[in-house]
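Before the break, one more example. Copy the sequence into your notebook; we will annotate it together after we see the structure.
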Amino acid sequence: MNNIRSTLATVWRIAAPYFRSEDKWAGRGLLAALVAAELAIVYLTVLQNQWNLRFYNALQDYNWDAFVYEIIYFSVLATVFIVIAVYQLYLNQWLQIRWRRWMTAHYLGEWLHEANHYRMQLQGDAADNPDQRMTDDVKLFVERTLNIGVGLLNSIVTLASFVAILWGLSNDAPLHLFGQDYAIPGYLVWGALIYSALGTILTHLIGWPLVGIDFRQQQYEADFRFNLVRVRENSEQIALLRGDAAERERLLVRFGRVVENWLAIMTRTKKLTAFTASYSQASVIFPYVLVAPAYFARKIQLGGMMQTASAFSSVQGALSFFITIYRQLAEWQAVVNRLDGFEAGIAAARELATHHNRIHVTEAAGDGAIDLKGLTLQLPNGTPLVNADGFRLHKGERTLMTGPSGSGKSTLFRAIAGIWPFGTGSIAIPTKVMLMMLPQRPYFPTGSLRGAVEYPSREGTFTASQISGALEQVGLSKLASQPDEHGHWNRMLSLGEQQRLGLARALLHAPNYLFLDEATASLDEPSEAALYRLLAEKLPATTIISIGHRSTLEAFHQRNIAMVRDGDRFALRDGNSPKPA
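Here is what the structure looks like once it is written out:
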């Protein structure tokens, strides 16, 4: 019971925001239309039940005129039913896509808000494969929630509509056994209740493991798909290392989990289907078994027996709702659990960014320098990494940062960018300045070359001549004439070309502070020197901070900062200032 209450509370927390959003009136209107259509369908079912009495009595009495009338009456009912059913499906699908569109935009906004996606990876949250959460799981949640909700409404209204009918028919067709009538008030209702209760209990006992199995199936499917994408993204390195066989083996191991879990689903579904199919088939004849003795005792006519069987089936079907959709319920609960985990991961990442015991990035007026006060960087597990207390990046000064790999140089850049939360202290960033980080492997969105080089600004921010000029200046003349060509630039360009394209992005945006994290490491030294001279010429007002291991970089910087071991962590130490560039 607590599990059901918890699941329903989670469903409400996930579903309710849409119906309070800016699209609430459209959503509420469509939902109301669905409810109205479902009520109309139930009403038509009641009318059809009454039709059963008249139609089969007409057959038994050989009444041709009544037969023709009932055929016409049924045709009208069927036509109205078809129209309502078609538009109910249409409105259901319309509500699904509006609801899904809002939820997808909402989750994207939360996931991509102030680097939440990055912090979720850092903390190793339970919301693995967020792409699946925002595609498959949102789609399934909306679809299953509407279908189950409308089906439950149908069952409740059907039960309320037919219980009174079936109760009355129990009096008209009393229980007849061994030549005797037994006056048991509403015995047909009690029969349907007992039959459905036993079926529901047994279905749950057989099928409840499907919730966990379905959850794992989606997890294994997503893991297999994710690793396929990784192979595609890193195909060149895999080919160079002759890693095809190794990757095939790794992928087959992951797919083996998919197959193994699928076999578990097959086994459990076989057991569940065996019971539910038997239950459904028995449901067809069960009402006739109950009422047939009264019919053969001539207590009721054929029409009365058919009406009773129809009413019994409606009540029994309503009471057996959870048996009918148990497989969907198991899948739905697994989807709810995954979305709940995704929301929890987002909330934890948000909490990580706002926790009092974190690195505080603030804006400060002054001489334009970046000040680090009391700053200590830590690893996610709390291990001290870098002590940067009192470190200052002066405006207009070009600084080179060196040190052994793993000493925290890139982590310091991340902290200054405001995306590394682990540590204490504060970082004061001058007001209204633009910071740009260029890593060793820059990111370019799939699409036009113009969009790739203008990122993160909107496409069209810069003119074609500005883009072409920047490309030519960084040595990408062959691309300068095709800014509107589309492609996957991280795959189409060599790493050196990607680094040149990243520097073209910096030339266009002209940031106040430019952080280069080995952003020219894949270029030969003459090309690297030419690009640093280009930056000095084209961005004279930009403060440049570089991470690099080549001694030739010292000539292009005015200050050298070294990461040195200081007990259990690294510290920043000013080296001998090289010649100004």
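Residues 70 and 205 are 44 Å apart (CA to CA). Confidence is low (pLDDT under 50) at residues 577-581. Try to locate both features in your own notes.
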